[in-house]
Amino acid sequence: MRQMIMGNWKMHGLRGRGSELATEIADAIGPVVAQRDVVLAPPFTLTALIAPILQSTGIGLGAQDCHAEAEGAYTGDISAPMLTDLGVRHVLLGHSERREHHHEDNALIRRKAVTAQKFGLCPVICVGESATQKRDGQAEAWLTRQIVECLPRSFQGIVAYEPIWAIGTGKAATEQDIESRMTLIHEVLRRHLETDDKTPRVLYGGSVKPEDAASILAVSGVGGVLVGGASLSAESFLGIAKAGLSSAS
Ligand SMILES: O=C(CO)COP(=O)(O)O
């Protein structure tokens, strides 16, 4: 399977730096990436600015969240059709930072996923255990529950495994840890989904850096990486993207 590299810029970037970063990435790999193997998810304020920069390249445009409703009196929110209107194809849902700071629960994330799918977006559902859950041996039960409760049985999207304890720490999970979680996640997906293809792509996220990207991408069950901090520099993001492209068969 070809590997997918998705950059989550989180709440970083003003227009100048955002367009510069997107342009550097587009110039370097835009012509060689297949359609949407590489996706950039800038903050909402940069979406319309970056859309034309990526338009004639193979790089996809992503977003970091959307509302569960298509429209309505929801001050400050952004809907799925607003995103597709701008050319967005992938939307992150249920990132641990939104679960923590916006109190998003599995039921809400599931409603968002259904709406995203309905409007033609590919939902990228984030799951992952905390350090305490890992220490207490609760990680597998937690991940299973997150998948079962967040993904509709008709799910046609991507799952991102992002252990909370690895995000922003500079220390990615070990290959052994990632492999065992991938085995569990794929097994739960096979049992849970009622789609023809019960093997959605599963990404790993959490302190991915250029120097360890190739070994993470080689772990069985990994279908790509979701990159936070290292996606904010063209050099480091391109290093990771090139590892993904060279692993493609
Ligand atoms: O949360 C992440 C991507 O969604 C991972 O962030 P870091 O790569 O900065 O650890």
UniProtKB/TrEMBL annotation:
<dbReference type="GO" id="GO:0005829">
    <property type="term" value="C:cytosol"/>
</dbReference>
<feature type="binding site">
    <location>
        <begin position="8"/>
        <end position="10"/>
    </location>
    <ligand>
        <name>substrate</name>
    </ligand>
</feature>
<keyword id="KW-0963">Cytoplasm</keyword>
<keyword id="KW-0324">Glycolysis</keyword>
<feature type="active site" description="Proton acceptor">
    <location>
        <position position="162"/>
    </location>
</feature>
<comment type="function">
    <text>Involved in the gluconeogenesis. Catalyzes stereospecifically the conversion of dihydroxyacetone phosphate (DHAP) to D-glyceraldehyde-3-phosphate (G3P).</text>
</comment>
<keyword id="KW-0413">Isomerase</keyword>
<dbReference type="GO" id="GO:0004807">
    <property type="term" value="F:triose-phosphate isomerase activity"/>
</dbReference>
<dbReference type="InterPro" id="IPR013785">
    <property type="entry name" value="Aldolase_TIM"/>
</dbReference>
<dbReference type="InterPro" id="IPR022896">
    <property type="entry name" value="TrioseP_Isoase_bac/euk"/>
</dbReference>
<dbReference type="GO" id="GO:0006094">
    <property type="term" value="P:gluconeogenesis"/>
</dbReference>
<feature type="binding site">
    <location>
        <position position="207"/>
    </location>
    <ligand>
        <name>substrate</name>
    </ligand>
</feature>
<protein>
    <recommendedName>
        <fullName>Triosephosphate isomerase</fullName>
        <ecNumber>5.3.1.1</ecNumber>
    </recommendedName>
</protein>
<feature type="binding site">
    <location>
        <position position="168"/>
    </location>
    <ligand>
        <name>substrate</name>
    </ligand>
</feature>
<dbReference type="GO" id="GO:0006096">
    <property type="term" value="P:glycolytic process"/>
</dbReference>
<comment type="similarity">
    <text>Belongs to the triosephosphate isomerase family.</text>
</comment>
<comment type="pathway">
    <text>Carbohydrate biosynthesis; gluconeogenesis.</text>
</comment>
<feature type="binding site">
    <location>
        <begin position="228"/>
        <end position="229"/>
    </location>
    <ligand>
        <name>substrate</name>
    </ligand>
</feature>
<dbReference type="InterPro" id="IPR035990">
    <property type="entry name" value="TIM_sf"/>
</dbReference>
<keyword id="KW-0312">Gluconeogenesis</keyword>
<comment type="subunit">
    <text>Homodimer.</text>
</comment>
<feature type="active site" description="Electrophile">
    <location>
        <position position="95"/>
    </location>
</feature>
<dbReference type="GO" id="GO:0046166">
    <property type="term" value="P:glyceraldehyde-3-phosphate biosynthetic process"/>
</dbReference>
<dbReference type="InterPro" id="IPR000652">
    <property type="entry name" value="Triosephosphate_isomerase"/>
</dbReference>
<dbReference type="GO" id="GO:0019563">
    <property type="term" value="P:glycerol catabolic process"/>
</dbReference>
<dbReference type="Pfam" id="PF00121">
    <property type="entry name" value="TIM"/>
</dbReference>
<dbReference type="InterPro" id="IPR020861">
    <property type="entry name" value="Triosephosphate_isomerase_AS"/>
</dbReference>
<comment type="pathway">
    <text>Carbohydrate degradation; glycolysis; D-glyceraldehyde 3-phosphate from glycerone phosphate: step 1/1.</text>
</comment>
